[in-house]
Design a protein that fits this description.
With 482 residues, this protein is an alpha+beta fold. It contains 11 helices and 27 strands.
């Protein structure tokens, strides 16, 4: 272990020298018996702890910690996080200067300990006026691959990805909503580990890599949301995918009622997928087993349990991970490999009701301003060269989404009507020229707004929901929505 001999203030506001920092860390190591090593911009405490035998803890045992004071180190942090349970590994991200980067990953020996850490330490005042954020950290093993020829089948994509990258486990391909013989121009590739996915991304990311003569787009996909087993045991809603655009809610309800009449409470269909609500969980489980793979109106459907939205008011789901409570932003929840993640289709936008469902509120986007001093060098830049985290509106995310898929920009058409009390109400139709066809020429929400900006955001969000059903069913549909 090496620590630069620089002075840093301690928790009481006093300056603590590099020598004192090193002495404090050595004392922690001696007391706990854990080892400590710094490499690749992070300092690892433990991993494994003394006397550990067997494999590392399973997925779900690690938490992410954000908003850590930059002058706080393991000698102060470890005792705090030990309150929740035995630490397998504590990884503090470090700067070259010797300060930490404001965030860390803490792996416990059990999932229960990790959940307890989130419960008791999220928004914990670690120093006077300094509150940390704690949430679950998941290894991302999935990549988004865009600009895939639409005529390619799942088996072809899987075989091709196995040729050019290692560790491929599966490929998720969504059929086109209007032509089931084609894909939607993108796929999700699942790898055996986060490292395998990261290595694949490094190989494919330059933007010059081609598959079947096409330059593909590569990015991190949203990690699939994990819901605790206790919550899933209460779910009585099924997520039904790969429906025909023409299939109605009444048809879906009738088909799911066939195996046992009267068990379906209601059905909500969006584009080519739907949510089937049951009165009782047992009937939902039985229907899932019976209906998965069945044909409705000529389409072979996929049926799974729907995953409930996190209703915790303290944390709101962001398309890049999790963000902080109240007015302060948690330092974005980075990907372990390179400090960021990206995903598609989850807009940061207005808190609105779509099709009778309440969407989560907008993320607390950082809107800091910085002084512009004379002589500062400015460089021309394209918005498409930025990361998606630089955008804070659904309209911008939709534009970014279209560009990422090599589609033409979305086109917005404004319409108005007058309410009973004389207010002018507005709605936008959104046309995506690259995918428009006779059966789905535009996207338009079923809600009206009083402002142009609100109408455009709502329309963009609505469009994104329909273009990215995987994210939509995870993050935007509440089980108990009216």
């Amino acid at each position: 272990m090496h620590e630069e001999n620089k002075a840093a203030p301690n928790g009481c506001g006093k300056i603590r020298s590099g020598t004192q920092n090193e002495a404090a860390l050595l004392a922690l190591m001696e007391k706990t018996g854990y080892s400590m090593v710094q490499e690749n911009g992070q300092r690892k405490f433990g991993g494994p702890p003394p006397g550990w035998e067997g494999p590392p803890p399973p997925r779900g045992c690690e938490v992410f910690v954000g908003k850590i004071p930059r002058d706080m180190y393991e000698d102060e942090l470890v005792p705090v996080f030990e309150r929740a349970g035995k630490i397998y590994e504590f990884r503090l991200m470090m700067e070259f200067s010797g300060e930490n980067r404001g965030y860390a990953f803490v792996m416990y020996t059990t999932k229960e300990e990790a959940q307890l850490a989130i419960k008791i330490l999220n928004n914990y005042e670690i120093r006077p006026g300094k509150f940390i954020g704690v949430c679950v950290s998941l290894d991302n093993c999935r990549l988004f691959i865009g600009a895939i020829p639409k005529e390619k089948k799942k088996e072809e994509i899987l075989n091709e990805m196995k040729k050019v990258t290692e560790g491929v486990v599966d490929v998720i391909v969504y059929p086109n909503a209007t032509d089931k013989t084609k894909n939607r121009g993108f796929a999700f590739v699942e790898y055996e580990s986060h490292r395998a996915a990261a290595m694949a991304r490094r190989r494919l990311i330059p933007g010059t890599f081609q598959l079947w003569g096409h330059t593909i787009q590569v990015d991190w996909a949203d990690p699939e949301k994990e819901v605790d087993e206790e919550t899933m045991q209460r779910v009585k809603v099924l997520y039904v995918r790969n429906l025909m655009m023409s299939t109605t809610e009444d048809t879906i309800k009738a088909e799911f009622n066939k195996f046992k009449p009267g068990v379906v409470e209601r059905v909500k269909k969006l584009r080519d997928y739907a949510f089937v609500h049951f009165f009782h969980r047992d009937d939902a489980i039985a229907a899932m087993s019976v209906m998965n793979g069945k044909c409705i109106d000529g389409a072979s459907i996929e049926v799974t349990l729907a995953k409930p939205v996190n209703k915790e008011g303290t944390w709101k789901q962001h398309f890049n991970g999790q963000i902080s409570p109240s007015s302060e932003n948690l330092l974005g929840f980075p990907n372990k490999e390179d400090g960021h993640q990206k995903s598609l289709g989850r807009p940061a936008s207005l808190s609105v009701r779509l099709n009778g469902q309440q969407s989560p509120g907008p993320p607390e986007v950082e809107r800091c301003t910085y002084p512009f001093f004379p002589g500062i060098k400015l460089t021309p830049i394209s918005m498409y060269s930025l990361k998606s985290s630089h955008f804070s509106s659904a309209a911008m995310h939709l534009d970014y989404f279209c560009n990422k898929n090599n589609w033409a920009p979305p086109e917005y058409y404004l319409y108005s009507t007058t309410s009973q009390d004389g207010k002018i109400l507005l709605v936008y139709k959104v046309l995506i020229p690259s995918i428009a066809d006779g059966s789905q020429s535009y996207f338009m929400p079923d809600k009206l707004c009083t402002t142009v900006e609100g109408a455009k955001e709502l329309a963009a969000q609505f469009t994104l929901l329909h273009l990215a059903p995987e994210q939509a069913y995870i993050t935007l549909l509440s089980l108990n929505a009216a």
